[in-house]
């Protein structure tokens, strides 16, 4: 039987193809309280090898792949963000869905008084929800 070792941390990791910095810029605009972390450019100058952004207490890792691949993001994996106010939720949804794709428009779906699901222009899927206590 294998010895058990607890995981030290878990963070979402988003891999782009040359658009990591543009995505970080959008996410910092949408989430003004976000905190940038370390950023390491690729040695060849083609994008970011690794960068970090803290959004609502979750450290998001982003990278530009140095290898072209035949896949991208899918809505089956999404970032779920709860908001304490409808104005902030609406702003985030409108900015993230701009030039992206709306999967579920903002509305009351029974499980939440205000919820929306969209893919941003980079293909990253976002579920945005108004917290029950809001």
Description:
The chain is of the alpha/beta class. The protein folds into two domains: 12-66, 2-Layer Sandwich (Signal recognition particle alu RNA binding heterodimer, srp9/1), CATH 3.30.720; 76-134, Signal recognition particle alu RNA binding heterodimer, srp9/1, CATH 3.30.720.110. Helix content is 17%, strand content 37%. It contains two helices and eight strands. It has helices at residues 20-30, 86-97; strands at 13-16, 35-41, 48-55, 58-64, 79-83, 101-107, 115-119, 125-130. Strands 1-4-3-2 form a four-stranded mixed β-sheet, with helices on one face. A four-stranded mixed β-sheet has the order 5-8-7-6, covered by helices on one side. Strand 2 and strand 3 (48-55) form a beta hairpin. The termini are far apart. The model has no long low-confidence stretch (mean pLDDT 94).
User: Could you give the order of the helices and strands?
Assistant: EHEEEEHEEE
Number of domains: 2
By secondary-structure content and strand pairing, the structural class works out as: alpha/beta
The radius of gyration over CA amounts to 16 Å
CATH fold assignment of the largest domain:
Signal recognition particle alu RNA binding heterodimer, srp9/1
Strand-residue proportion: 35-45%
CATH architectural arrangement of the largest domain = 2-Layer Sandwich
Output the number of helix runs: 2
Which spans have pLDDT < 50 for at least 5 consecutive residues?
none
How many β-strands, per DSSP?
Answer: 8
Give the overall shape.
Answer: globular
Helix content: 10-25%
Q: What's the story with the biggest beta sheet?
A: 4 strands, mixed
Give the mean pLDDT: 94
Name of the top-level CATH class of the largest domain: Alpha Beta
Largest sheet, spatial ordering of strands: 1-4-3-2
Distance between the termini: 48 Å
């Amino acid at each position: 039987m294998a010895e058990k070792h607890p995981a030290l941390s878990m963070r979402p990791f988003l891999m782009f193809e040359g658009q990591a910095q543009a995505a970080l810029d959008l996410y910092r605009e949408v989430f003004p309280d976000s905190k940038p972390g370390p950023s390491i450019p690729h040695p060849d100058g083609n994008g970011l090898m690794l960068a970090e952004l803290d959004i609502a207490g979750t450290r998001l890792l982003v990278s530009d792949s140095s290898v072209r691949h035949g896949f991208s993001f899918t809505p089956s994996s999404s970032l779920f963000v709860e908001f304490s106010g409808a104005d902030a939720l609406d702003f985030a949804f409108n900015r993230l869905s701009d030039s992206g794709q709306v999967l579920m428009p903002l509305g009351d779906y029974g499980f939440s008084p205000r919820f929306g699901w969209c893919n941003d222009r980079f293909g990253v899927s976002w579920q945005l929800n108004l917290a029950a206590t809001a």
